[in-house]
Amino acid sequence: MLVLGMDTSLQACSVALVNRASGEVLSYRREIMERGQAEVLPDMVDAVMMDAGDPYATLAMIAITRGPGSFTGVRIGLSFARALASTLEIPITGITTLEAIARNVGHNPERLPIAAVIDARRQELYLQVFDAGMQPLTEALLTPVDQAAAHLPPGPCLLVGSGAALLADEATGRVAIDADPLPTAEVVALHAPVEPVPTEPPEPLYLRQPDAKPQKPLLRRPH
Questions:
Q1: pLDDT tens across 53-84, in order?
Q2: What is the spatial distance between Cα 59 and Cα 64, in angstroms, rounded to a whole number?
Q3: What is the pTM of this model?
Q4: Domains, the chain, ranges and CATH?
Q5: pLDDT tens digits for 187-222?
Q6: What whole-number distance in Å separates Cα of residue 138 and Cα of residue 127?
Q7: Contact, 158 vs 112, CB < 8 A?
């Protein structure tokens, strides 16, 4: 099964084509960027597919991060993935940004819980905790930094993501590990759920309202 993975949810744009049956990454591209993913993503997808021999006809599914993250980034990724899936008439699956980051943890011999932590700015964090087998122990949530530790499991755990250092505590065994703090499209493609085959596109997970506010109606001048 060929799956095309994409991520634009944070400070990068990445695309990967993987063979889910073998676990092989056939093609992968990534560019670190704060904004501009909408302009880069279509060309990056074409480049990844061309690198692998143009297998659009045999592509089985599209996988995308659905948030939390940048409101604009999440919207860009989901909109493009939905449009491409509709054009190719194939299903689309999604994975949370937090799970994708948690799966960047490779070496975990003690089978400790893993907390994915994203710096959401404004003294807030996006946070979700998983067990060593990547089953969620908490819901994805938005929490103030000074309240985040209450959502972590007691005892040692591994912290990964852009906000990991904010929760590290040697005394309790909470360790911020050296792993990629951003989602990668290859992880998205390899681990987004594909069974049962999704019949509806994934919904965005924002957790916070967008910064942009509706424009107020113009006041009419009195005649």
A1: 999 999 999 999 999 999 999 999 999 999 99
A2: 15
A3: 0.91
A4: 2-97+182-191 (3.30.420.40), 105-176 (3.30.420.40)
A5: 999 999 999 999 999 999 999 876 544 444 434 444
A6: 9
A7: yes
